[in-house]
Amino acid sequence: MSDFPLIQWSEADTAHSARWRSEAGVAPPKRVVIADDTTTADNAYKLACEGTALLYRGDFQNARMLLQAMARRADRKKAKQAQSPTEAFNLHRMAQAQRARTLGMLLIPFDAGHLIPLRRAPEVHDACLEAYGAADEGYVTSLRELLGLIGAHEWRKKGVEIPALGSRIHPYYGVFSPVRGEYVDLVARIDLPTGAEALAFDIGTGTGVIAAMLAKRGVKRIVATETDPRAIACANENMQRLGFANRVEVVKADLFPQGRAPLIVCNPPWVPAKPSSPIEHAVYDPDSRMLKGFLAGLTAHLEPKGEGWLILSDLAEHLGLRTREQLTEWIEKAGLKVIGREIIRPRHGKASDADDPLHAARAQEVTCLWRLAPV
């Protein structure tokens, strides 16, 4: 843990310091005061908005209630009226970032071994170990991040039901959970190209859900690629659970593995914007880097009569962040042609939530599987 930065504060006229943990890469706050069960939500929220962090010394459950009260105050802020879908998206992202910064100012101390030295604190050793690894000394993290770790640990234990797969996928912390499973339905229902029964590539496998779907459909060998060590471990564990470990090889590679395949599938991040935390890399792809890289390299890794399956939501188009013409231009520039398209509408709650800031775009969204082949 010596590689982690220090957070410093004064308590009872004595200087203190501890290691700072932030999976989102947030720098340790410069100003820290002590909070306890007497701290009011109004005062805590005011200090947090000013950039002052509050290190809690009291009852853990009271700290949770304080965070909830701060969240209610943050949510009262009226959003500026957007003049376009793109402005609505940018304002929404700015509001999300500000909310995360403010709520991230309520801090929790830890002793070595991931123990919380507060009254009524839960046992969180396993959740923290999965995300942080071993802790041989004390540290400080935000309560908001800790609650995220606990939630991710529960998802990892119980898994996410994937109806098309007929099984559960167990996501790790920091690996995007396939809670929006409609894209798996597309992979499940489209006819496999000739030769794909023998070999397929799954580019950016994440939890391994698409590789698992291909294995369920009878593909004898799947090479799944990833760059994130957590995702590699997660995909490998899911293949073991599902009984596909002898058919799915998960390798570390930026996009494509070595060789060619008759079927190559990729579900890249859908929105060309900058991620603000590690898990957002599964949703936000700056300058469409992964999308462009997949298209540009596809012909070099497809067998002559093979197909590339690009799975992509058109939400970015409805937000004004990318046009359909740009996408088709990238496809043509890569020496590819479109030989088929299958679409499916999202089933998640935000698609029908009129109060969502991006409702106008989400209401039009569809997810498409583009069947691509060399010209």
TrEMBL record:
User: Example GO molecular function term?
Assistant: nucleic acid binding
Which PROSITE patterns does this chain map to? N6_MTASE (PS00092)
Tell me the Gene3D superfamilies matching this sequence: Vaccinia Virus protein VP39 (3.40.50.150)
Q: What SUPFAM superfamilies does its record include?
A: S-adenosyl-L-methionine-dependent methyltransferases
Q: Do the record's keywords include Methyltransferase?
A: yes
UniProt xrefs under Pfam families: MTS (PF05175)
User: S-adenosyl-L-methionine as a keyword?
Assistant: yes
CDD domains with a match to the protein in the record: AdoMet_MTases
Instruction: Identify this protein by name.
Output: Methylase of polypeptide subunit release factors
Q: What is the lineage of its organism?
A: Bacteria, Pseudomonadati, Pseudomonadota, Betaproteobacteria, Rhodocyclales
